[in-house]
């Protein structure tokens, strides 16, 4: 009878420790991360087609194209493993590379507006719409990942599940951060004056 009571006490204690919740949220965060990677890969696959269609424009700014190509190469060269989720430095490096690609593509799209023949090109317009849709998918996938990691991190820091986290070495997971927070917090400068000639 004493063994039965000890066994029952152990089962009750373990059921309230959050171990299964850690497993569930860890798997959910991995699945959410896989979707983020899937969308980033979709975007990376679009870049060569966008660059090829822009290269057809005779006087297009070569520096802008070069930056997009270099940013894509950097973003796709970073090896991402499941351990990346638990390594804040590797996660930040990956996030920075993806941010650079986002910035380079934004500049490319802004510069492309100066070229009417490029804007009239149906293939380029289709690629632009596909890119915009992919950027939206990236945002949704990142938001799902952020929510899952938030739930995991709250579990890892809350009592009594934080004890389970310490026993089984469940560290808080890194999440996406705004890289240019200081710039974003400043209001944009709007200048309606006519451009100088």
From TrEMBL:
Superkingdom to which the source organism belongs: Bacteria
Location(s) in or outside the cell: Membrane
Topology of the protein relative to the lipid bilayer: Single-pass membrane protein
UniProt-listed Pfam families: LemA
UniProt keyword annotation of Metal-binding present: no
Keyword vocabulary terms for this entry: Membrane, Transmembrane, Transmembrane helix
Chief location category: membrane
Statement: the UniProt record of this protein carries the keyword Transmembrane: yes
Recorded GO CC terms: membrane
PANTHER family hit by this protein: MEMBRANE PROTEIN, PROTEIN LEMA
Family the UniProt entry places it in: Belongs to the LemA family.
Protein name according to UniProt: LemA family protein
